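Subject: Interface between my chains keeps coming out wrong

I've been trying for a while to get a sensible model of this assembly. When I model each chain on its own everything looks fine, but I need the whole thing in one frame so I can look at the contacts. Pasting all components below, labels as-is. Any help appreciated, I'm running out of ideas.
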Amino acid sequence: MDNRICGIHPVYEALVSRRTPIERIHIARESHSGKLKEILELARERDVPVRKEERSVLDRMAEGTVHQGVIAVASAISYADFEALFKPDKPVVVVLDGVEDPHNLGAVIRTAEACRASGILVPERHSAPLSTTVVKASAGASAYVPVVRVKNLVNGIDALKERGLWVVGIDPAGTQDWTDFDYTGPVALVLGGEHRGLRRLVREHCDALVRLPMLGNIASLNISVAAAVVLYEIVRQRRATPSNSKEAPQE
Amino acid sequence: MDNRICGIHPVYEALVSRRTPIERIHIARESHSGKLKEILELARERDVPVRKEERSVLDRMAEGTVHQGVIAVASAISYADFEALFKPDKPVVVVLDGVEDPHNLGAVIRTAEACRASGILVPERHSAPLSTTVVKASAGASAYVPVVRVKNLVNGIDALKERGLWVVGIDPAGTQDWTDFDYTGPVALVLGGEHRGLRRLVREHCDALVRLPMLGNIASLNISVAAAVVLYEIVRQRRATPSNSKEAPQE
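Reply #2:
Try treating it as a single job with all components included. I did that and got this:
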């Protein structure tokens, strides 16, 4: 696996140089060298998640390379700072609660870029890493859309609320149709993962829950499709509002 | 490849029994046995496309199995008759002009089923076969949505027009926004393939061309995403029209 950086010195150098974006670091439980402490310190500073693992897990990951109890997984692109989500005037943030399929993550990034959404918010756990597969599935859009990672998604949602965003969950149990919410203000859309949908706690932290009608026999849409339908409803509403009509060509 | 049926007798039996849906048949150019003529006859009756190939192509496809100059490719599900598209009162047909990625075809089928669209129309050439990958990507929706195959897509579009459908192409060169067309009547949406978009002749046969705004830097949306955005715009419009409000619960 060419996205694995194995061994104390290579991982330390990768963290210090900041040349390679690091997705996460795996450390053997029983490791206690002084240099490893420095690595942990740097990882904390850089917001890189660290997972303690059995040495056998690291042996499998390293595929024969000497790892000295520490392996970093490189990512194709870097995560952005939380502040990057608030660059536009009326932010649209897409919050993904456990999207693990890189094709889905890439497809959401691609549509978000097309709709000029501000960015994507994901949790550390149960999220597809920012791999080359994500970059490819995004058709290059990942170069333009900030993806922000937070330890705890509920805290992240609360932070969005503090910044004035309305948090709208997309959920089969939604109490209104996707078109009945007014998205003309700053807004965050929250979508659940492929396997479990929105978690209860995340759902409870939404200001509103909207549903996409399922008129046939199947139970749900693909995540990237559901995100796209609501993102383009936002585009439709914002184009229709008088405040936006001012943006028409003025020649 | 377990979807290949090799040899004169097995292919003949598959066509006669109708137990296995057949995607297409490959025949060696220089084959002239009497039984092969019967196979060609049956294939014509059953609307199964036949491709004449060099014998070396068949050798490669057969992977060592004896093929006697004929190989059938089985599909996971059958194509439907053209008439299946007109079962609902106000049909919504999704026409795919060269969608070759089975994940995209499956995703379109999934969304079409969720929107209760009438079915999918595809051409024989440059279309993903109805493989198990399509079935899986459709999340089971392929059991409910008829997929109709025509030799010539332009003729197919003309046949839709004769049945009273408005044919709307989704194209970056569209003259109106996707929300500006009135989809409350019978309608067909035409989308181009992953690589080349709508072909000129197909585009010229559309009654209208609508565009999805691309507000960022990238040039296009994923096919299944573009289809979904317009399919849900149709749902939105049809829910909003007075004729549909009569369908509200009457208890």
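Reply #3:
Confirming on my end. The mean pLDDT of chain A is 92.
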